[in-house]
UniProtKB/TrEMBL annotation:
Gene3D superfamilies: Transcription factor LuxR-like, autoinducer-binding domain (3.30.450.80), Winged helix-like DNA-binding domain superfamily/Winged helix DNA-binding domain (1.10.10.10). Residues 170-235 form the HTH luxR-type domain. It comes from Salipiger mucosus DSM 16094. It comes from the Bacteria. Signal peptide: none annotated. It holds the Pfam family Autoind_bind. Keywords: DNA-binding, Transcription, Transcription regulation. GO terms for molecular function: DNA binding. The lineage of its organism: Bacteria, Pseudomonadati, Pseudomonadota, Alphaproteobacteria, Rhodobacterales. This is Transcriptional activator protein raiR. GO terms for biological process: regulation of DNA-templated transcription.
């Protein structure tokens, strides 16, 4: 696995992509740049329409569909309930079906380690950006710690471009968040309490509430959690 891969060129390629097929070649370039086994992006609309690109072997993709693994895959089930990146080791693999699925995935070269970034988009869109590899726990911990921010950034670039390239999928333009609103939502996204956010920003909790409500209104969110999710999905904040 790479120590400090430069991603600037790949981000530029993403911005310049003209078709969904371009995302496939970029996912292959990412795999090679980071020297891991796989990079995968998977998009699901509220109506069940799907789009995917990545480096999984076609035989595994077909087997996944034929076996109905979507229903029992702990990565899908676990990430759908989360907003933050997830290391596969922290998911629930306790059921017999989940363990059998994991053995099958490893046998097909998916790797024994994985890191998935859930992304929420407009109109119920849900996407996953995943990197997987075969290595020991210590090496994987070192890799994810070193590249977490770059992977999150790349995930949101992939999602934005996928939305841009599909007619009718792009979200409506949102009012830009102010720097203070971005700071407040970012700190909430990484787990700070409101009191901790206010203290960190050297403002009162009342003022913080004003920033949060303003951001919520701009994002069209129902509550603070929804606002954080929308800000992450639109790339307004990166955590």
């Amino acid at each position: 696995m790479a120590d400090t891969p430069a991603t600037d060129g790949l981000l530029e390629r993403l911005e310049q992509a003209k078709a969904l097929e371009d995302l496939q070649t970029i996912s292959e370039a990412l795999r090679d740049r980071y020297r891991v086994d796989h990079f995968v992006y998977h998009w699901v609309s509220a109506g069940g329409e799907q789009y995917g690109c990545g480096t999984y072997d076609a035989a595994w993709v077909q087997r996944y569909v034929d076996k109905g693994y979507l229903r029992i895959d702990p990565v899908i089930q676990g990430c759908y309930q989360r907003f933050h990146p997830v290391d596969w080791k922290r998911l629930d693999w306790s059921s017999r079906a989940a363990r059998a699925f994991r053995r099958d995935a490893i046998a097909h070269g998916i790797g024994n380690q994985g890191y998935s970034i859930p992304i929420r988009g407009p109109n119920g869109q849900f996407a996953l950006f995943t990197v997987s590899h075969n290595c020991d726990d210590a090496a994987w911990e070192e890799f994810t710690t070193a590249h977490r921010r770059d992977l999150i950034l790349m995930a949101h670039y992939f999602n934005k471009k996928a939305l841009d390239l599909e007619p009718g999928r792009s979200p409506e333009a949102a009012q830009p968040l102010s720097p203070r609103e971005v700071e407040a939502l970012t700190l909430l996204a990484v787990g700070y309490s409101r009191a901790q956010v206010a203290q960190t920003l050297s403002i009162s909790e009342h003022t913080l509430r004003v920033y949060i409500e303003s951001a919520r209104f701009k994002l069209g969110a129902m509550n603070t959690t929804h606002a954080v999710a929308r800000a992450i999905a639109r790339g307004s904040i990166v955590v």
